[in-house]
Design goal:
This protein is an alpha/beta fold. It contains eleven helices and 17 strands. The protein is elongated and about 70 Å long.
């Protein structure tokens, strides 16, 4: 079977690029002696995640549904890297009782108290990481904040049938807003230094805190030092996307994910090509709109995945995509109805979430396999 045999839209995954991206980060981190704990929220697929190291490898998830799915497919060492809330603790317990070595994170005293009480009442051994805010991007406790030690005090129990402090975690989300190589390098060092400092304060207060977990796709690729760090997390690196391209982490030719669509009509006076892949296929993510080059809803490639210069998906309705030359509508090629194209997405996580499976190719148009993926929270 070839791509031309399929109904569109389809989510296409280039296995050759995928494997190259995986090996790139693995090779880069090897000299630092840290553990790579991939974030599987991007791919949500056992078939993809097996290529990251298989069920013996540690993984990061962003939903308990992901934890459940990967546990069912053989993974045990799972970090749930979204702040836990008390209402989810019964689900956490269920996963641990089934064999998951599940770690949770939190960043406030109320949750720490609730987690400690639940673990004690249910005789549950539950490792906890305190989330650290190193860049003001989202969640976490600043490394020098007194709250860090107060949270630690609630988790002071020794490992056993209790919640216990396993260490710290941070995510350099602000790295996505960097505009130069030097800025990402600086962000990576800020991330490392903040997490290490927080762990040092906890250790000085009597905690072992063995884990120092950092990560984002940009900082993982540009960090110059990981001294004091034990593990690195990254997710979108397996696919890359136009946001990563826009900050200089990858080339367009590295992006492994695209959406196969078909030309269904034209608006010649406007220089538009109309396709059958709208925002329901691409998602509403316009992550490049704040970057120096706005890529609309995505860049256009031919059926084989070769970039078509200056052809951009400029707009989208629910099931209709609008393609046009970036600068000159009159220069838009009026491709025949039925022409198949591939759209490279802004945000691989968001676009992937629109589909239930990957159509796998290896640098061309022949379909190698179909790999299921899942979505949702429960």
């Amino acid at each position: 079977m070839h791509l031309a045999d399929l109904e569109t839209p389809q989510l296409v995954l280039d296995r050759t690029r995928l494997d190259r991206n995986i090996e790139r980060l693995r090779t880069r981190l090897a000299p630092f002696g840290v553990t790579l704990r991939p974030h599987v929220k991007t791919n949500k697929s056992a078939d993809v995640t097996r290529r990251l190291g298989g069920p013996d490898a540690p993984i990061t998830v962003s939903t308990l549904k992901e934890a459940e799915y990967f546990l069912e497919h053989g993974w045990r060492d799972i970090l749930y890297a979204v702040g836990i809330v008390p209402s989810k603790l019964p689900h956490v317990e269920k996963l641990i009782r089934r064999g998951a070595r599940l770690t949770v994170i939190l960043d406030n005293e109320e949750t720490a108290q609730a987690v400690a009480a639940y673990a004690k009442d249910h005789a549950l051994s539950l490792p906890v990481l305190i989330e650290i805010d190193t860049d003001g991007h989202r969640s976490g406790v600043p490394p020098e904040d007194d709250m860090l030690l107060r949270i630690g005090a609630h988790l002071r129990a020794a490992p056993g049938a209790n919640a216990w402090l396993a260490g710290v975690l941070t995510h350099a989300g602000e790295s996505y807003n960097c505009r130069s190589h030097e800025a990402i390098v600086a962000c990576a060092e800020q991330e490392r230094a903040g997490a290490v400092r927080a762990a040092e304060r906890l250790r000085a207060d009597g905690h072992a805190a063995p884990v120092v977990s950092v990560g984002s796709t940009p900082t993982a690729h540009f960090a110059e030092s990981l001294d004091g760090v034990t593990e690195v997390r990254a997710g979108v690196y397996v696919f890359f996307d136009l946001v990563m391209h826009g900050i200089g982490v990858c080339a367009v030719e590295d992006i492994a994910l695209s959406v196969l669509c078909t030309v269904i009509g034209h608006q010649r006076e406007k220089g538009w090509l109309i396709t059958d892949a709208g925002w329901m296929a691409m998602s509403r993510d316009r992550g490049t709109a704040k970057q120096p080059v706005d890529q609309g809803y995505g860049l256009v490639c031919d059926e084989a995945g070769r970039l078509m210069t200056d052809l951009v998906m400029i707009d989208a309705n629910q099931e209709h995509g609008i393609l046009r030359h970036r600068n000159d509508p009159a220069a838009t090629p009026m491709l025949p109805v039925g022409t198949m194209l591939r759209i490279v997405p802004n945000h691989a996580c968001a676009t992937g979430a629109q589909f239930g499976a990957y159509t796998v190719v290896a640098g061309g148009t022949e379909v190698e396999a179909t790999w299921p993926r899942f979505s949702g929270w429960a």
